[in-house]
Fold this protein.
Amino acid sequence: VPISAALLVVGNEVLSAKCADENGPHAIRRLRGLGVRLRTLAVLSDRMDDIVEAVDRERRRVTWVITSGGIGPTHDDVTVKAVARALSRPLVRNEALAGVVRDHHRERLGEDAPEAALRMADLPEGARLVGDPKFPTIAVENLFVLPGVPRFFRWQLEQIAPILAGTPLSLGALYLTLGENPIADVLEQVAARNPDVEIGSYPRFDDADHRVRVTVEGEDAGRVRAVLDALRAALPGGAVAREDEP
Amino acid sequence: VPISAALLVVGNEVLSAKCADENGPHAIRRLRGLGVRLRTLAVLSDRMDDIVEAVDRERRRVTWVITSGGIGPTHDDVTVKAVARALSRPLVRNEALAGVVRDHHRERLGEDAPEAALRMADLPEGARLVGDPKFPTIAVENLFVLPGVPRFFRWQLEQIAPILAGTPLSLGALYLTLGENPIADVLEQVAARNPDVEIGSYPRFDDADHRVRVTVEGEDAGRVRAVLDALRAALPGGAVAREDEP
């Protein structure tokens, strides 16, 4: 079974156009490289109910759920609470994380950690800390709770990358001089006969050298090549302008 | 009640890193300008069940659902079918849209429309055509079904903009020299006392002139100004480096 993931970006600031989402685009590329199939990417507001609902839905249908954002000490940081509620686990102070927060404040800021900072160590019961011990990632069941600040998100994603890893996909493509209408039936038939690969069709309407890019993706490069051959054979002569080998 | 929206981008090609989503970022900015509150943006694969589930969920909790992509003639274009299923409406050929497709093929390509193209006129029963009569947008209940090609998506979004329009928000911000920990309690109290505005807190960890940007948003600029004043009064002296007026 392919390793799959859902990414939940908790980002009022993204939805209200205050800033662009950097974590979604980064994670898409990185998960692709790791061979993890991203099934959905949702940007959510910081409404507790919406986050609870999304976490509960996605955790049941993918291998890994990754959240981004909403884990600071202020009133709009509700992700950890929402995860606890979605998993029906009480929030309890995680002493290991509280220790990390205390050390950070003592070493970096030369002060005792305030209660607001320590509240960030209140985690769903049974949560684990993974990755860098100095800047750990919160994990519970099949969820990873990552920070929203892009630099920190990217860092923690690298830390958990070895845990996530799946099987990378091979991608091949045919660039066609025909539009989608005359090829629709061929694609449908070849797709139905080859359920182990995924066939996509992407039209364009500019003056490029092709009108449709047909992609074939799968874990086995040999199978991708075979399906590209099957498509080429089934399409009208001269339809293929060029090709990307898997 | 504020006008709200959900944007569902049907985009296997986005999730698999074949191309970046342009429609989400564009729609975020445009909806903001129109005064429509975007409650969620989800990028979905072209799995029928996922789209059905998302359409059915979102249509119940926002004013408008906008979909992007998956409406061409090929096997991976399943959005219209998914919308029909989510609304429990049968697919029926929409004769007005079939006429548009026929005219397009006759005028632009000098040929009869093939059946694959006419299948794009099979719509959920009761669907309406809105916007430009030559390039209409499919609407049914509170859903708008837009194309995924960015140029066409943007065009159709402009066509339906007058239908969507809500009340634009005023935005003000305080740029603070303090981090989030010492301000968390103040923000929570002021937010609880002013539920008609939305208060956000966005930390940064670089060498900018501020460590946290606190935003206040609401329909009434006078109320935004009043809440900015209340925050300034409740924060320690010297905490505000600068300010954006609403």
Observations:
- Chain A has a mean pLDDT of 95.
- The radius of gyration of chain A is 22 Å.
- Chain A touches chain B through 62 residues (CB under 8 Å).
